[in-house]
Amino acid sequence: MHRMNNFNYIEEKLSVLAYRIETRGKLNILDMHLHSEDFYLHFLNELYGWQLKNLNIFKPNTEAIDLIDLNCKIVIQVSATASKHKVETALSKNLSAYGGYTFIFISISKDASKLRKKIYKNAHNLIFDPSSHILDIPSLLKRIASIGINEQKRLYEFIKKELGEEISPLKIETNLALIIDLLAKEDWNQRDSDLEIKSYEIERKIAYNKLNAAKNSIEDYIIHYGRVDKIYSEFNKQGVNKSSSVLASIRRIYFASKTNLSDDNLFYEIIERVVDRIKTSANYNSIPYEELELCVNILVVDAFIRCKIFENPDGYIYANS
């Protein structure tokens, strides 16, 4: 199988698993979490060549640690929550028996990039560097993109066995398609009168990321920020934080694409991949391509404004207080 097909399949499967974990009802969250622990145990062994085992086999109900590699001296917490408090709570437990071990925190449903920049209390002085020992799906995908085709093929075969056959375009369900359905009903020829962003801050971010060609697109669609915000609010009434999954989908595409692209090329690649993701969704109500592209441009620019994609310059605050 072609290298890019391998990667796209792996990315899609991990994203779908993350979405299911994030949106799983409270009654089933424990079962889903335990299933995810088992999946990530084998997945990480395949990806990194570790020899992880489930610590509950040796010490049932162990606090703070889910997986352990006795040979490489690694202990891992697998979590559906991504917060500084969650990481520090794990590190504060009685981990004195693991002196000299590396502690790794893996967020399996939420982006953890902000956590990698924070400072943590490490009571038992485990080996722990937040910048490299806090993992999430985007950072795992970045590593996968850098490995050889044979290694990717092995991961592809493992994930296909664990999570199912290749995803059929008729089986993918996304909130992206649902939000596009709402956006398509809007009259975008009318200027939004409820603009609440600082245009000069957006200009700073555009320059900071060297988006020379994309600048015009961003400036064209920035006027719709207020209306998109209102649409997201209505969309959230269908379920808790449904808009978060839309923005998270765009953010995952950004992280997966930035491995090989930057600047304007990265911006336009995100738009193309979001369009493709929507078109392969079972719940996508087909609209003319020009309308779809317009709506996706508006969504991607909105994600840019909201700090979900591309780097922010120091002190970046996009909304008026």
Molecular structure report:
By secondary structure, the chain is mostly helical. The chain has two domains: 3-163, Restriction Endonuclease, CATH 3.40.91; 175-305, no CATH class. It has helices spanning 3-23, 29-48, 84-92, 130-133, 137-146, 149-163, 175-183, 199-208, 215-221, 225-236, 242-257, 263-279, 289-305; strands at 53-54, 67-69, 74-79, 102-107, 134-135. A five-stranded mixed beta sheet has the order 1-2-3-4-5. Strand 4, helix 4 (130-133) and strand 5 form a beta-alpha-beta unit. It is globular and about 65 Å long. The model is unreliable at 24-34 and 166-172 (pLDDT under 50).
Unreliable stretches covering 5 or more consecutive residues: 24-34, 166-172
Q: What is the second-level CATH architecture of the largest domain?
A: 3-Layer(aba) Sandwich
User: Can you count the helices?
Assistant: 13
What structural category characterises the helix and strand content? mainly alpha
Principal-axis shape equals globular
Give the mean pLDDT: 81
Q: How many domain regions?
A: 2
Report the biggest beta sheet as strand number plus sense, adding barrel if it closes.
Answer: 5 strands, mixed
Give the distance, in angstroms, between the N- and C-terminal Cα atoms. Answer: 51 Å
Class of the largest domain, according to the CATH hierarchy? Alpha Beta
Record the SSE blueprint:
Elements: H1 3-23, H2 29-48, E1 53-54, E2 67-69, E3 74-79, H3 84-92, E4 102-107, H4 130-133, E5 134-135, H5 137-146, H6 149-163, H7 175-183, H8 199-208, H9 215-221, H10 225-236, H11 242-257, H12 263-279, H13 289-305
Parallel strand pairs: 3-4, 4-5
Antiparallel strand pairs: 1-2, 2-3
